[in-house]
Amino acid sequence: MTTLLPHKFGPYGGQFVPETLMPALIELEREFVSARNDPAFNAEFDKLMASFVGRPTPLTYAKRLSEKLGGAQIYLKREDLAHTGAHKINNALGQALLVKRMGKKRIVAETGAGQHGVASATAAALLGLECVVYMGSVDIARQEPNVFRMKLLGAEVRPVESGTKTLKDAINEAIRDWVTNVRDTHYLLGSALGPHPYPTIVREFQSVIGREAREQMLMDAGRLPDTVIACVGGGSNAIGVFSGFVNDESVELIGVEAGGSGIASGKHAARFGDAEKARVGVIHGTRTYVLQDEDGQIAETHSVSAGLDYAAVGPEHAMLRDNERAFYTSATDEEALSAFQMLCHTEGIIPALESSHAVAEVIKKAPTMRKDQVILVNLSGRGDKDLNTVIKEIGNW
Ligand SMILES: *Cc1c(COP(=O)(O)O)cnc(C)c1O
């Protein structure tokens, strides 16, 4: 079998899947490589990115936040202004176009908070595909508006009652469906995770963020940023923005994981940050860093933001960390909530709680930098979906 794309990122990545799925992964890789070299496919993708998603998303200079922090100049890449409110639509639409190209009619997707489910249901409605979204019953209860959105968009939402009834269990069920119906069904994976070629495909569809941001920085600031900061759940928005700068050696790349109630509390999703529980393992088809107990069982995770609440991180990030091209840190729930409020007050932007973790790192980092230095932060999504959580967490106003 010819290898079309690298299967691994150093020692990470690979294809740890049942034999029955190998033909589907090989077909997907072939189709992706041929689509990427097909001007008609790229033209259709670019056209939908502009006319449907609303790209390019703007770059906003955060003047008042920069002044308040008193150090580096801060620029925001506004993925919150993309259709459906986050970067996830870039990947969902790209994969949905591949599904049409493969002649398949049905997609299955997993979702935690519901953002990827909404993006998948949206892409399916636009392109006339059948869409089934697996979602843990615990998540269904706490993310009701997104469940309703998916249904309005014509998707079927299937509750998952196994395990902890959250994201990892939803992924298990989506994979189970895919194995059973692989002939006519595509698994539309939502982050830079899973078996090859998913991490590469997702990065490529999200790389539009980094390409646009690099060009916009050169236009608006007249220079590249010194530092690029993004939050890291599975790692798709981060790898998308990093990819625009990874070859610029002068640009520092920082990923921010969910520190939850603090690393020491054990209640977090800092896959790189917990020296005790973070070890290399295999999960959902890929080898990467996974939070696990002494027996190798997947550890329970916690974050105030559902989109960062997952026990594993994308394999390319594991490599970037090993070779020190990118650095990873974490922000606690409390730090993210306070960053959320600061961005609301200083810039008139309500960020997603996931993105607020990146803003929390900006709050720590900008004051240590000079005023002629520049930080670019990827604002991965908007906070409308998080209002109930925030009101509960920060109490009466
Ligand atoms: C899903 C989500 C994330 C986390 O996913 P990544 O794949 O790490 O980008 C971050 N921000 C928002 C707004 C999300 O919806």
Can you give keywords for this protein?
42% helix; 14 helices; binds pyridoxal-5'-phosphate; 6-stranded mixed sheet; alpha/beta; 397 residues
Walk me through the structure.
By secondary structure, this protein is of the alpha/beta class. It has 14 helices and 14 strands. The protein has helices spanning 22-36, 39-53, 63-69, 88-102, 115-127, 137-142, 144-152, 167-180, 198-220, 236-242, 315-322, 333-347, 353-365, 387-394, and strands at 8-9, 12-13, 59-61, 73-78, 106-111, 130-136, 156-160, 185-187, 227-231, 252-260, 278-283, 286-291, 326-332, 374-379. The strands form 4 sheets. A 6-stranded mixed β-sheet has the order 3-4-14-9-10-13, with helices on both faces. Helix 5 runs parallel beside helix 7 (144-152), helix 9 crosses helix 10 and helix 12 (333-347) packs across helix 13. The longest helix is centred in the middle third of the chain and has 23 residues, at 198-220. It is globular, with a radius of gyration of 20 Å. Bound molecules: pyridoxal-5'-phosphate.
